[in-house]
Design brief:
single chain; 2 domains; five-stranded antiparallel sheet; about 20% strand; Centromere protein N; chromosome; nucleus
Length: about 180
């Protein structure tokens, strides 16, 4: 696991209140139940974080794994963001088609990656037929900033998408595509 991934996971875990930590880690489902049982959650948070980082290093966590943890944290704390609602529309004469989540993810990711060289897109599906999308924006010359992402929540079979306020306002029109 590279040190930027470790730092990203560390910062995310530090944001999580101790009383929610085990719940969020279980929802993340990256670390096994046995691994989580090795963690003493009664220690100081810094010690807990170090132990969790060590476990993530053993499993070779990727940026995608870290982004998924961040999405789960945001799902628990969605009230901390300002959300905008976008209504999507179909062109005249277009029928309502069946929703294919795999196709949606692939096309969404391709559109953003074609428009921007450096962008990280992560997805998480929920039981409510929603897909949470996390977008870390970069520029032509910089890597994606994992600490200032935009979140999009899309409920399949509805014409609405909810987006968190983006630090890079110029990228917001790309989400409408």
């Amino acid at each position: 696991m590279d040190e930027t991934v470790a730092e990203f996971i560390k910062r995310t875990i530090l944001k999580i209140p101790m009383n929610e930590l085990t719940t969020i880690l279980k929802a993340w489902d990256f670390l096994s139940e046995n691994q989580l049982q090795t963690v003493n959650f009664r220690q100081r948070k810094e010690s807990v974080v170090q132990h969790l980082i060590h476990l993530c290093e053993e499993k070779r966590a990727s940026i995608s794994d870290a982004a998924l943890l961040d999405i789960i944290y945001m799902q628990f704390h969605q009230h901390q963001k300002v959300w905008e609602v976008f209504q999507m529309s179909k062109g005249p004469g277009e029928d309502v088609d069946l929703f294919d989540m795999k196709q949606f993810k692939n096309s969404f990711k391709k559109i953003l990656q074609r428009a921007l060289k450096n962008v990280t897109v992560s997805f998480r599906e929920t039981e409510e037929n929603a897909v949470w999308i996390r977008i870390a924006w970069g520029t032509q010359y910089t890597k994606p900033n994992q600490y200032k992402p935009t979140y999009v929540v899309y409920y399949s079979q509805t014409p609405y998408a909810f987006t968190s306020s983006s630090m890079l306002r110029r990228n917001t029109p790309l989400l409408g595509q």
